[in-house]
């Protein structure tokens, strides 16, 4: 270090006094710029003295802070996380540095691992890789699971974006035949996204409807069907104030997700951030940004949004062109209820064929899928406490004691159905009679 350059002012004076051409690197110089008007003034003098002298000042910082006084005199370059090519090259170097012959470094393995680590910095990728190698030196399924778990921890520490590590299969969604058919068709188009026009590549889908009818489950099934990782944006956490201004946190989350593409991005309860009752101020700016971003985002990002208070969504949000389709998820039909009972019984190791399910659903008219699942769980709990096998009587007994949401909140559900009747496509083949 040159003499008298151990202070911010001394470093700037050294740049000015240097007789020849040069590149001067000021590390983490955002703090002196933030704290001192004298340093900001001196940097402007440095700019004038370096002009046309082949002297260049480079300021690096982990945070973006550009004083208004010098904003128009600087070039700002934001370094985003590495892409697949950079990650593959980094992984190649890391693996080759290990003992020769212990790690499979085929191009296929490198690319698969690089795509797994998309969105991480090189340091974070190194942590994840070493955790994966500790599980399996061949970078097989065990190491991939370990790396995904490390990625989940790294992504989730921010608080706003959550990595969902356990997507659900489409077969675990009862009913909703129209929705399933639509998703399988769009999956094919999404997988061909690099060869198609941007107008044809699927952008996203909006699920609206009655709470407990499977909107969140459908989003998880999309990630499984598309064979993509799933990330959820927590709207409540975003507006908590713990991550700065919600507007900035929302923009940062969207940009971060573009770095992780291809992926499915889930905006849960999107009406929390974008409502028709707030057209100006912060929520208005978030809404304007979201509309533009949906049109211009990378084609490798599929957006799935869910909403319960659908009447709060602005008309611009649900019109054709923002999302590829808007689905209304209603109360399940009788045959869908039977399918839901079968799914939840089978998941818990119980043979559905041992029960008269058509008779059982006569007791569950107007029930949501979540209420059916809870009925199964409660009945199994009762049978386990009494140390016996589950019986049909257990299920019926729980059913007759329960009051469904469609009865306790009849007016609100009627309002939701009426609002969505001409605004969304039904996810099931036939709507439940109102």
Protein architecture, described:
- The chain has 434 residues and is α/β, with parallel strands linked by helices.
- It folds into 4 domains: 8-73, no CATH class; 84-157; 170-329, P-loop containing nucleotide triphosphate hydrolases (Rossmann fold, 3-Layer(aba) Sandwich), CATH 3.40.50; 334-402, Helicase, Ruva Protein, domain 3.
- The protein is built from 19 helices and 9 strands.
- Strands 3-5-6-7-4-8-9 form a 7-stranded mixed beta sheet. Strands 1-2 form a two-stranded parallel sheet.
- Strand 6, helix 12 (281-296) and strand 7 form a beta-alpha-beta unit.
- Helix 6 (122-135) runs antiparallel to helix 7.
- The longest helix has 17 residues, at 369-385.
- The model has no long low-confidence stretch (mean pLDDT 84).
Number of domain modules:
4
Give the N-to-C terminal Cα separation: 79 Å
Radius of gyration: 28 Å
Average the pLDDT over all residues and give the rounded result: 84
The CATH architecture of the largest domain would be: 3-Layer(aba) Sandwich
């Amino acid at each position: 270090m040159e003499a008298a350059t151990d202070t911010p002012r001394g470093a700037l004076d050294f740049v000015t006094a240097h007789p020849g051409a040069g590149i001067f690197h000021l590390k983490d110089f955002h703090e002196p710029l933030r704290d001192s008007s004298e340093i900001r003034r001196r940097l402007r003098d440095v700019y004038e003295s370096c002009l046309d002298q082949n002297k260049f000042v480079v300021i690096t910082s982990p945070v973006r802070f550009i004083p208004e006084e010098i904003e128009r005199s600087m070039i700002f370059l934001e370094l985003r996380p590495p892409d697949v090519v950079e990650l593959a090259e980094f992984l190649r170097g890391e693996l080759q540095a290990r003992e020769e012959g212990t790690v499979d470094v085929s191009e296929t393995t490198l690319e698969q691992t690089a795509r797994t680590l998309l969105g991480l910095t090189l340091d974070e990728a190194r942590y994840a890789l070493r955790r994966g190698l500790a599980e399996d030196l061949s970078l097989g399924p065990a190491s991939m699971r370990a790396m995904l778990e490390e990625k989940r921890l790294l992504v989730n520490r921010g608080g706003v974006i959550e990595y969902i590590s356990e997507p659900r299969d489409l077969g675990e969604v009862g009913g909703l035949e129209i929705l399933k058919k639509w998703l399988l068709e769009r999956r094919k188009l999404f997988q061909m996204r690099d060869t198609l026009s941007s107008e044809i590549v699927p952008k996203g889908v909006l699920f609206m409807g009655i709470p407990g009818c499977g909107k969140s489950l459908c989003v998880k099934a999309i990630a499984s069907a598309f064979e993509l990782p799933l990330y959820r944006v927590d709207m409540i956490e975003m507006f908590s104030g713990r991550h700065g201004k919600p507007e900035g946190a929302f923009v940062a989350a969207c940009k971060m997700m573009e770095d992780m593409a291809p992926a499915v991005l889930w905006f849960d309860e999107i009406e929390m951030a974008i409502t028709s009752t707030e057209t100006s101020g912060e929520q208005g700016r978030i809404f304007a940004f979201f509309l533009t971003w949906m049109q211009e985002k990378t084609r490798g990002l599929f957006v799935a949004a869910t909403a319960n208070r659908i009447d709060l969504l602005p008309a611009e949000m649900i019109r054709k062109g923002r999302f590829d389709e808007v689905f209304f998820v209603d109360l399940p039909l009788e045959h869908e209820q039977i399918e839901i009972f079968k799914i939840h019984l089978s998941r818990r190791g119980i043979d559905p064929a041992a029960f008269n399910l058509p008779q059982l659903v006569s007791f569950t008219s107007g029930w949501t899928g979540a209420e059916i699942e809870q009925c199964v769980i409660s009945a199994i709990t009762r049978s386990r406490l009494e140390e016996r096998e589950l019986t049909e009587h257990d299920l019926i007994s729980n059913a007759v004691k329960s009051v469904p949401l469609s009865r306790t909140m009849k007016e609100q559900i009627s309002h939701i159905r009426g609002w969505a009747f001409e605004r969304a496509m039904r996810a099931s083949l036939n709507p439940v009679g109102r």
